[in-house]
# Entry
Amino acid sequence: MIQLNDIKKMLLSQGYITDDTVAMSVFLSLQLNKPLLVEGPAGVGKTEIAKVMANALKTDLIRLQCYEGLDATHALYEWNYQRQLLHIKMTEHGSQSIDEKEKTIFSDSFLMKRPLLQAITHHKRPVLLIDEIDRSDEEFESFLLEVLSDWQITIPETGTIKATHIPQVILTGNRTRELSEALRRRCLYLYIDYPDFEKEWLIVKNKVPGIDAKLAEQITRFMQQLRGMKLEKTPGLSETLDWAMALASLHIAHLDKTIVEQTLGVVLKDWRDTKEVQMSLSELMDKTGIISKLGNA
Amino acid sequence: MIQHRESFSANIVRFCRFLRQKSFAVGVEEEAITLQALQFIDYIKPSIFRMALKATLCRSKTQAEEFDALFNDYWHQLSKAIDAKIKDFKKQKPASQQVPFKSLKTWLHGNRNDETEETATYSINEKLSKKDFSSIPDDEVDELMLLIRALAKRLAAKKNRRYEFSHKIKMPDLRRTLRKNLRRGGELLELAYRKPKRNRGKLVLLCDVSKSMELYTAFLIQFMYAFQQVYGRMETFTFGTSLKKITTLLKENNFREALQLLGAENNDWAGGTRIGESLDSFVNVYSKKMLDSKTIVIILSDGWDKGNLELLKKSMRFIQIRSKKIIWLNPLAGYNSFTPDVVGMQTAMPFIDVFAPVHNVESLRRLGKWL
# Structure
């Protein structure tokens, strides 16, 4: 049986640096066979958890990306109409009866499996990631609730399909919309916030091989300051990593104002934010303690 | 040993009950899951024990934030009461010195308003949504704005992204077409079509921005703003002493800018009210284009009026006839003692289809029912 410490080790060996709360939630979600609902701001590694989990369990990750207007045909299954039509045309002069024809064109080979159906018919227990569930609309949420509790799907033309394995489910959300209480109650809940300085620094050093320790520290400090500002899109951990990666590959040893200005686009994705940060850059750098240190040196 | 275990699970059940009092949605099922979860962990370690309970009992961000303080509080009290048995928990008490006393703070702030504490139902952010807009402490405004934004989006997006079956030609509905024609050997003689379902109704929002409404304005504007981002078929006006159309202003700017522009542009902002004159100019200038039998007109105002009552009556009657429904939202109606005895309100009352309070998030949510 998997122990809590194993999960911690697995997460760590997959390069996912985290505090114990995350490990505990993942562990209990596995043990209790309950879906895990992960909420938090963009770019703090919510999706990553699912990837790591699939890796750790040595199984496949099936991902359902939610969006406004997502409906059952995109989440469950759809008949391949073009193929069905072609098949009917080709067998037009055959001797098959209509009933037989019907049976053929509503068979498995004409069925396009979408993520949810894929997940429950998978040969091995997969990890099912339902990403950004808060972006889908309410109808879909209640539909999902049904699937998550029954683990079976009924296709009118062929009948009911029961899950071969109940997938390990992870749902993520950004809190752009309140999720229903019913869905929440079905899941274990985990909130991931932006990492603190120590943790983020550690992650940068770990994920960007060969990065100068000093640079990593400066980047992290800068990002921590940046998140304190009121921005349209607060940069997450993934932005930190992108930036660190970019600066490391440019062989830059330390931050200064010009470099920050030139590479700000990696971190900020909204022109209003960029403008605002550019205006208060000196102040920001002062707070980070970068300018003063380097100025003296 | 067994007895120890029993009292242990009894304590957990009691802790769950304690959480329930703090408006956590913890039912029997959650209790069972928590007990089940403890089989898998080494719960002698306090920190692990706490994390396991947190993972199984929390359901939202607010709860996750409050949990540690509540946990420490409860087990500390317990260990004081029983002393001997659960010594281990004393060790982790020091960690709770900087406890985020959010719940306490909410309680303190909310204390003025009895309703805040009484109700324990199954909604997240319960406390915040029940709180009167005018008594929100500064540090909770952001969270509240998030809540309002989410709510408005949900209300606005309702229904209009689905497809419905249609006879007018829009897009072929292959699934239906195929099934329809299968009996004829698959020759496509009869085609089926579908078209996107649409929200047919239009919304016209008339928002009072006079002095007496000042406290509520920011929240209402946030609501309108988010609503308009999604809803599309909506026209927004503000009025104080005169009427102004702000639809484009809300559409083209981000929220903070829009609010600033509104403040700068609108000299009515926090001034007096002349509802009659404002509605009259709406009737004269815009009603032909904007009102039809599918339009819902929402008026946000407390009815404090210094203008022409005859004009108010006339324009209200006109609007009522030409529209589907008039919804009047009044922030003051949220108080128990409220009676609509302001003159302006009394004049308008006979023409109103729905009269509702709008003083907290909960009431905004209920608004969805009428739209």
